[in-house]
Sequence to fold (196 residues):
Amino acid sequence: QRARGHGGQGARHVVEEEARALLEARALLAPRVAAGELEHLAVAHVLRHPRLGGVLQDFRLLEGRTVYENVMLGLRFLDLDYQAMKAQAMESIIRVGLEPKIHQPISSLSWGECQRVTIARAVARKPVLIIADEPTGNLDRENALKILQLLRTFKSEKTTVVITTHATHLIDFQQPGLYLSMSSGVFSSERRDAHV
Fold:
């Protein structure tokens, strides 16, 4: 799914609402969180859910740590033993094409490589929902398209991928999915199925 709009029109709000709705629909929230309390959850809390993977604009990576350490840190609150964490981290790093740089510090990576680390960190959690907020921001066209293609590969694994972007010229609207647009604060949607 992809949400698009113009600056200041609330793409971040769309991400929050989508996460809450999907969490509620899939009954992923802990029983102690009542449905009525969802509206009070900030996006930061929503994205900490163990079944979600967040790819945020500001990366939230630790520059003094390596690629591997940053991905491992994303797994620290899951109920996994060390060997399982290591295996999931390695698998996701290889999947995003960063195996040659696994022991390099974040400070030595390009912007596009940092974005790949955030995707690896999100995917390592084996989430049912990946939320990517402006994943192509500050990337050149070639790298932006690579990131979008990479994100697209995860939706075939029973994972919902939500992408918010202002860079609508990079989106291939012939791909199957649900496309949301916002204009003057009003949403419209269009579903494109695989046979279209």
